[in-house]
Amino acid sequence: MTTVETVTPTSAAKRMKTPNDSPLKIWFLAPLAIWLTVLFLLPLIFLLWIGFWRVENFQTIPDFSLGNYAEIFSSFFSKSRYGLALIQSLWVAITTAFFATILSYMVALSIAFAVPARWQRLALLFAIAPFWSSYVLRLYSWQTILSRNGVINSVLKQFGLSDYRIDVIYTQIATRIGLIHYLAPILIVILYVSILAIDKVLIEAARELGCTRWQAFTRVILPLSRFGLMTAASFAVIVSLGDALSGNLLGGGAGTSILGKLPTYASMIMSDYSSSTNLPRTSALATILIVVMVLALAAGFVAADRARRRTS
Questions:
Q1: Burial class (CB in 10 A: 0-12, 13-18, 19+), 67
Q2: Where does residue 73 rank: exposed (0-12), middle (13-18), buried (19+ CB within 10 A)?
Q3: Are 203 and 221 in contact (CB under 8 A)?
Q4: Rounded Cα gap, residues 149 and 219, in angstroms
Q5: What are the residue boundaries of the structural domains of the chain, listed by start?
Q6: DSSP state for residue 147 in the 8-state scheme
Q7: Measuring CA to CA, which residue among 39, 38, 49 is closest to residue 283?
Q8: Which residues of 46-56 are buried (b: 16+ CB within 10 A; e: fewer)?
Q9: For residues 250-273, b (16+ Cβ closer than 10 Å) or e, as one string?
Q10: Angle made by CA atoms 142, 114, 133, in degrees to the nearest 5
Q11: In degrees to the nearest 10, what's the CA dihedral of 202, 204, 208, 209?
Q12: Under CATH, which architecture does the 80-310 domain have?
């Protein structure tokens, strides 16, 4: 008599193995885990820990004290104006993310739909080429372009248009220009991948059903790329919040904006770090910025997840 083995779904699932079930995956993930732990997690924990230390007689003493935070928040919106600087940073970061995302989205759309498929990789390579140069070098280049006697104003003077000279250097507009130049290559890649994932059949179906190009964009392409837009905007906000170089080199440390002549919060941290010996207090200031960035990341994650669910 032949015995017939009963195969249940549970036993079949146990027999079927995928590459992700291999024990070797742990060894392949180990270098990444070590890299993130040593170069990101441990320095972050150390920074948070130092924020609770105290200073006595110009000596840093390990402790667990909330004195640094109490001192900071006691004058958060008055003497130190850290609160106003934080609002300034949020304003600059949100507006920068808005303009950077729109600009990068237009470039990504152009590469995806206006460039032939065989040339798209080359076009994308040219779009991200500025990312290969030094960020500081790019900021100094923008100083040369935007300064009062820079390239643009010199050209206007040569054509007798001195009355129309631009004066944006050492303002938050110049800060945004530097940040957009830094963010654009990364955002273009994020948005291009998002657009490339859209099923072209849906676009063709919309066109065949009578939609104009604008209607196909607003009703098909834009909704289906909403997740990429939310992701790119969240990334831009977080990077802009933590950036200090653009605010110092192009914004002049305390660039003029609608909120007044205020520095960004990251610039104030750098200024305190260079002029003070109170490292625990500076670490506490940095911790506050990290908390704000985590909250911004959480808000971006929720928005992107909602966009993904609406798309699906």
A1: middle
A2: middle
A3: yes
A4: 47
A5: 80-310
A6: S
A7: 49
A8: eeeebbbbbbe
A9: bbbbbbbbeeeebbbbbbbbbbbb
A10: 25
A11: 20
A12: Orthogonal Bundle (1.10)
User: Which two structure tokens, joined as six digits, stand for 116?
Assistant: 């032939």
Q: What is the pTM of this model?
A: 0.85
* Residue 302 contacts residue 234 (beta carbons within 8 Å): no
Compute the distance between CA of residue 181 and CA of residue 129 in angstroms, rounded to an integer. 11
- Which residues make beta-bridge pairs with 56? 59
- Token representation of residue 64: 């667990």
Q: Beta-carbon neighbour count of residue 298 at 10 Å? A: 11
Q: What are the pLDDT digits (tens) for 214-251? A: 999 999 999 999 999 999 999 999 999 999 899 889 98
Report the 10 Å Cβ neighbour count for 296: 19
Tens of pLDDT, residue by residue over 25-76, are 778 788 888 988 998 899 999 999 999 998 887 788 888 889 899 988 988 8
Token look-up 């957009």 returns 180
- Per the listing, tokens 């500081």 go with 136
Range list of H helices, the chain: 9-15, 24-36, 42-50, 67-74, 82-109, 120-127, 135-146, 151-158, 172-196, 200-208, 213-216, 222-224, 226-242, 245-249, 265-275, 279-311
